[in-house]
Amino acid sequence: xxxxxxxxxxxxxxxxxxxxxxxxxxxxxxxxxxxxxxxxxxxxxxxxxxxxxxxxxxxxxxxxxxxxxxxxxxxxxxxxxxxxxxxxxxxxxxxxxxxxxxxxxxxxxxxxxxxxxxxxxxxxxxxxxxxxxxxxxxxxxxxxxxxxxxxxxxxxxxxxxxxxxxxxxxxxxxxxxxxxxxxxxxxxxxxxxxxxxxxxxxxxxxxxxxxxxxxxxxxxxxxxxxxxxxxxxxxxxxxxxxxxxxxxxxxxxxxxxxxxxxxxxxxxxxxxxxxxxxxxxxxxxxxxxxxxxxxxxxxxxxxxxxxxxxxxxxxxxxxxxxxxxxxxxxxxxxxxxxxxxxxxxxxxxxxxxxxxxxxxxxxxxxxxxxxxxxxxxxxxxxxxxxxxxxxxxxxxxxxxxxxxxxxxxxxxxxxxxxxxxxxxxxxxxxxxxxxxxxxxxxxxxxxxxxxxxxxxxxxxxxxxxxxxxxxxxxxxxxxxxxxxxxxxxxxxxxxxxxxxxxxxxxxxxxxxxxxxxxxxxxxxxxxxxxxxxxxxxxxxxxxxxxxxxxxxxxxxxxxxxxxxxxxxxxxxxxxxxxxxxx
Length: 582
Ligand SMILES: Cc1cc2nc3c(=O)[nH]c(=O)nc-3n(C[C@H](O)[C@H](O)[C@H](O)COP(=O)(O)OP(=O)(O)OC[C@H]3O[C@@H](n4cnc5c(N)ncnc54)[C@H](O)[C@@H]3O)c2cc1C
What we know:
The chain is of the alpha/beta class.
């Protein structure tokens, strides 16, 4: 592992595969290619820890600050990327997510779930989410108590699982493996600021790399893989405009469009009848120690029948900001919200005007529930702070069986929801991003109709009721704007270059040696959190490059020779490494 500042200015480097970005995708690819015989150069903007000046390179602006966080939030520009702060919730996409659904405009992947199934188990290992088993029936040998005893539904499954990563910080977890890999070089503080096409316009010939010390490098490679995150891959393509003002891969103005997050919110009150109501909304621990959680998932047939997107819901504690919950630990969280990192505390900060009376009621809750609060703090210290595999989230078991509903829904692809380059530039001279995230009427309908159906099924099951204000659905699903760190769709996959940026192999249309490993290539967002699928796609891409390498025999024609002696600790001469393997 080297630091770009140690190399000196105006150096040339080359490799077989140049990966831009060492987050979940970039590190997974580098690991998968480590024994391929290919020389891999992994360029990472950050260092091993968060640094303010590097993180500031992510800053940009948003069209509507109520709808989206500033772009330097919910992302980490350092080795390990955003996995240094992620929540670790994992699940694969559903088969329906890949289908072209006539009721969901711009939906449809050029690959199906079957293309990812060979890679999901390995991805699951990398994220350390235990066994690849996402149905409670398969994942547990013991019989679990039902999530909601007596709940019956044709349209919702209560059997699907989310499994939790440690949460694994890919940087910390895999640094030693990358250090040990002889053919992988990691270069820190190496910001790719522009890609350059060769004369044909169909090959990336080199990447310009800069650091904040003012040094430049030039990197050539047989293949380039952009793994710089769902917003940044679009930024880099758009900013690579010295040969074409539209940028690279953007002949049809698609790069940056179709930007999706997830639609998420908390709504209503779910109350269960009778003292013997049996409800379990917490975690089930698998034999291997992985925390798993069941949720209510809208089945594919119901989605098709209603003509809506994918949707899941979980039973959740009451809204923390409202002291009426009378739960000490929830009130303590409210009172301590200034100390909770922005990415997790945002949902405690979003509401205006917590009055003095509200504060007093929260204080009262803490005092009145002192034993409960102390017990929770001990559990948190033991099972979260000190534990290697961390308890994933706050679970409060209410004294009366009353919950709110937490939903997480697919957002439909919308070309008007987009990121573009602004006028301002960062410290490296790269234009900053402008984020204009939008949601659609279809997104509102997905949530509205799913909730209606769920309320009906709960009532019909005779187990309780779900009360909520149907008129508040749109407000609740956008109360805190776009859902955090899921940056999807900005370089979508498809067969038609007029409506997509990469093909089914994640190769940028029209550029033979440029690939993307990121949620940016997802044409649709699913209900699922993205990282497991990001990693599975990265592994699939690594496999594709290995196959390509076996096919390609000639040396890379425009190889750029080094202009100086090899720095200490660097891998074998690039001229050797440009040869095809096997
Ligand atoms: C608070 C939070 C909670 C989350 N929780 C979950 C969850 O529970 N489940 C889930 O599935 N996902 C979750 N996510 C999302 C998850 O973190 C991302 O999906 C994942 O990190 C994406 O991996 P990536 O490799 O594509 O991008 P990143 O992890 O963002 O990595 C990109 C890397 O590229 C580097 N880079 C950027 N630009 C350049 C450049 N120009 N040159 C060189 N390097 C560059 C960055 O420094 C970074 O290291 C969460 C995110 C956040 C912020």
